[in-house]
Design goal:
Length: 122
């Protein structure tokens, strides 16, 4: 019986303490420029120094973030919702245009004045 008033008091204190805090629905990674649902398995791996919080998917897309392909935080056609501010094409982005042995585009930056990076044979 004596424990009940303390439990109620603790519950009221916790409710008041969390009432003023805003709750972000989406989190983004500053390095990868991808955003996730809060409960996505990849969202839990983001370090505090790279964590960015968003109230909406539209806000994340407007800042140039892309949706996670695992949790799909903004639905199937999330990239069509908001156009990114940058008008730089992929070819002019400075990324190496070579194709790796796996068949994917090289992720390194191209050398200045070239379309390719330092790696001669992929």
């Amino acid at each position: 019986m004596k424990l009940l008033p303390k439990t109620v008091l603790l519950f009221v204190f916790l409710c008041l303490a969390t009432a003023g805090t805003s709750h972000a629905q989406f989190v983004g990674n500053r390095n990868s420029k991808k955003f996730h649902n809060e409960d996505c398995r990849y969202a839990r791996r983001i370090s505090e120094s790279n964590l960015v919080k968003f109230e909406s998917a539209r806000e994340a897309l407007a800042q140039g973030y892309k949706h996670c392909k695992v949790c799909r935080p903004a639905g199937e056609n999330s990239t069509a919702t908001v156009a990114p501010d940058s008008t730089v094409s992929r070819e002019d982005s400075g990324r190496c245009r070579a194709i790796t042995k796996r068949g994917t585009q090289c992720k390194r930056k191209a050398l200045p004045g070239s379309k390719y990076c330092w790696q001669p044979n992929k």
